[in-house]
């Protein structure tokens, strides 16, 4: 595989850095392009990959293309890549939020096979949560390759496109909900007398540890919650307050609002 990266910004660099680190692809087989020289320099420094002049050169030289520009730059980038490909088939993996398979396919030649993904920013530290869906003309091999690349920066699942906005509501926007929770948990600690820095570290590590327990034990979160909740103890007192204040309902409503907003923005 020759992997071409169009758009070497934060997400493009994070994904390729993770893929190289995990051995999913070797740096010699990757080239990136970006009109912003500083972005391209940071990309090559982080990944060891080669560079290309523009998307046309990527289209001409790479069988697999990671499309990582902002959504409004995607159509132009795809057109250039198609010009470079000059009739050759290509696999395109898009990380542009909200752009549907149909929109992407409409900007590309018929023999470009499209995979649409919804990653999240913790991919930058190798802890992403990503879902992808694939266009009608993709192969099982294409899906396996996308799975391998995306899994190198975190947990990855395949979903039908109709569920991509649900993924946006849970994991795409989700890091922001959890930052708010971490901040609020730390506020509680500060109220009880802890220093701010210690409170933030304790809160963040608690979220990290609880998440690791869910992922590594495979137990239902309610079972893990029961394991920390002794009769008449501190934890049940706190949980009762959380239920009183509607934390569970607030999280469900937050996801619901994000899904509705994604629908409104047209990325169904
Ligand atoms: N950051 C997030 O939270 C997040 C999460 C999920 C998905 N995404 C998606 O990832 C994509 C990239 O986001 P980002 O935060 O890395 O943006 P970014 O601005 O850091 O990177 C985009 C890069 O694309 C380059 N670019 C623009 N036109 C180009 C062209 N024709 N050829 C080559 N390069 C070109 C820009 O110069 C820029 O460096 C977006 O489409 C976004 O929707 C981002």
TrEMBL record:
Gene source species: Luteolibacter ambystomatis
Residues bound to NADP(+): 6-11, 68-71
InterPro entries noted in UniProt: 6-PGluconate_DH-like_C_sf, NAD(P)-bd_dom_sf, P5C_Rdtase_cat_N, P5CR-like_CS, P5CR_dimer, Pyrroline-COOH_reductase
One Pfam family matching this protein: P5CR_dimer
GO BP annotations listed: L-proline biosynthetic process
Molecular functions per Gene Ontology: pyrroline-5-carboxylate reductase activity
Annotated compartments: Cytoplasm
NCBIfam families to which the protein is assigned, alphabetical: proC
Enzyme Commission number(s): 1.5.1.2
GO CC terms of this entry: cytoplasm
Top EC category: oxidoreductase
Domain Pyrroline-5-carboxylate reductase dimerisation: 161-265
Domain Pyrroline-5-carboxylate reductase catalytic N-terminal: start-end pairs: 2-98
Record's function text: Catalyzes the reduction of 1-pyrroline-5-carboxylate (PCA) to L-proline.
Location, primary (coarse class): cytoplasm
Similarity section: Belongs to the pyrroline-5-carboxylate reductase family.
Name of this protein: Pyrroline-5-carboxylate reductase
PROSITE patterns, per the entry: P5CR (PS00521)
Reaction equations catalysed: L-proline + NADP(+) = (S)-1-pyrroline-5-carboxylate + NADPH + 2 H(+); L-proline + NAD(+) = (S)-1-pyrroline-5-carboxylate + NADH + 2 H(+)
Keywords, comma-separated and alphabetical: Amino-acid biosynthesis, Cytoplasm, NADP, Oxidoreductase, Proline biosynthesis
Pathway: Amino-acid biosynthesis; L-proline biosynthesis; L-proline from L-glutamate 5-semialdehyde: step 1/1
């Amino acid at each position: 595989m020759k992997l071409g990266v169009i758009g070497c910004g934060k997400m493009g660099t994070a994904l390729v850095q993770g893929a190289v680190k995990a051995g999913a692809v070797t740096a010699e087989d990757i080239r990136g392009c970006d009109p912003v020289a500083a972005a391209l320099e940071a990309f090559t420094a982080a990944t060891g990959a080669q560079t290309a002049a523009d998307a046309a050169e990527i289209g001409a030289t790479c069988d697999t293309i990671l499309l990582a520009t902002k959504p409004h730059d995607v159509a132009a980038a795809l057109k250039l890549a198609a010009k470079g490909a000059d009739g050759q088939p290509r696999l395109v993996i898009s990380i542009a939020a909200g752009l549907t398979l149909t929109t992407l396919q409409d900007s590309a030649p018929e023999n470009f096979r499209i995979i649409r993904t919804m990653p999240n920013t913790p991919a930058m530290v190798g802890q992403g949560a990503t879902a992808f869906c694939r266009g009608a003309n993709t192969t099982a091999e294409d899906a396996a390759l996308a799975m391998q690349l995306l899994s190198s920066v975190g947990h990855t699942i395949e979903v039908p496109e109709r569920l991509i906005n649900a993924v946006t509501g849970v994991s795409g926007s989700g890091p922001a909900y959890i930052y708010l929770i971490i901040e609020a948990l730390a506020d509680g600690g500060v109220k009880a007398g802890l220093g701010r820095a210690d409170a933030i570290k304790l809160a963040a590590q608690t979220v990290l540890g609880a998440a690791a327990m869910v992922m590594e034990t495979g137990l239902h979160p309610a079972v893990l919650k029961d394991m920390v909740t002794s009769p008449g103890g501190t934890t049940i007192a706190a949980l009762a307050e959380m239920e009183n204040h509607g934390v569970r309902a607030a999280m469900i409503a937050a996801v619901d609002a994000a899904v509705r907003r994604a629908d409104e923005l047209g990325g169904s």
